Amino acid sequence: MSTKTPVQKRRKRKPRKQFQLFVKGQYFDFPMLFIVIFLVCFGLIMIYSSSSYRANINLGDPAYYLKRQGMWAVIGLFGMMIVSTFHYKFYMKFTVLVYVFAIFLQILVLLLPNSSHGAKRWIVLGPIQFQPSEFSKVALILFLAHILTLTVKQVRTLRGLIKVGAFAIPLFVLIGAENLSTSLVILGITIIMLFVTSPKYLPFIVMIGAGAVLGGIVLLSAGYRMERIEIWLDPANHVKGMQTMQALYAIGSGGIFGKGLGQSMQKMGFIPESHNDMIFSIVCEELGLFGAICIIAMFMMLLWRIMYIANNAPDLYSALICTGVMAQVGIQVFINIAVVTNTIPPTGIPLPFISYGGTSLVFLMAEMGMVLGISRHIRIKK
Question: I need a labelling partner for 122 at 20 to 30 A (CA). Which of 92, 111, 177, 380 fits?
């Protein structure tokens, strides 16, 4: 007869696997790190080149925008390296909270009186301007990666895809109320992350169609958006087509090898916000077609490195984070260059790492840090 007590007979529970908050790993994607640093440094050079004339006239300091962007670049670089040491599973604990906070910020920015160029996109805290839509992109990527990991079997059906995709609707609508271009980025990130999770194609045809209808509704909800289509169709004869035409003049005048760094003429008041969304036109004017192709090639290499890390990621959650970041960068690069070349209607979206903007740069580099952190978990076969 057994002398063991009921307590002794209980099956011993296996201890849960704990992960270290900070990891070193056997691998680190230095090629990706080099590409990111190169793009940031190139962006600083082009910001100075494209803004020095206007900054000197308006602010008395030709390096004003360079200094501000340089400060955010340093903060972003340190943030990227710190985030790259975090274990990616650490984000799982805060995904819901981060997602809810992102929705709160988007509601708050609509209620505040602060606006820029007639649109409410910024939260002003003294000397600091914060654009919550940049935070919302990161929040959505982390939240969708977590939800899709938990519901990977359910998203194989159209019903499951719609349920998960519905989580992006609040951010899409709130951001789209004042910023259609960023809402399209949100929509694109959602569709691509769902696409790589589900093995079926038919549901995505339905979702893309629904997304097109939803985008059309948002487009028709404001008259100024229809005006942008009119500008796109005939910028030469439209009253507000000057920016598009000047950007095309800059691209055309650059030729094959450009006029030389710092030699742009269109930046001298002809192109509004030449250091922001239209900076690619200055790149084409000063560095020519050759320089433009080189920059596009660097972005292609960055996307390839992120895809490499996603393909070798240890699990679905980390792979989806990489996929979301890759989708965001790729969509923003495409939209920005397409707008500058008048391939699509004009809209405001920055060129990643190169356009002026502290909020965009810091959050982008934080995302690069997350991807680099995931690269530390790639197993090296000996």
Answer: 92
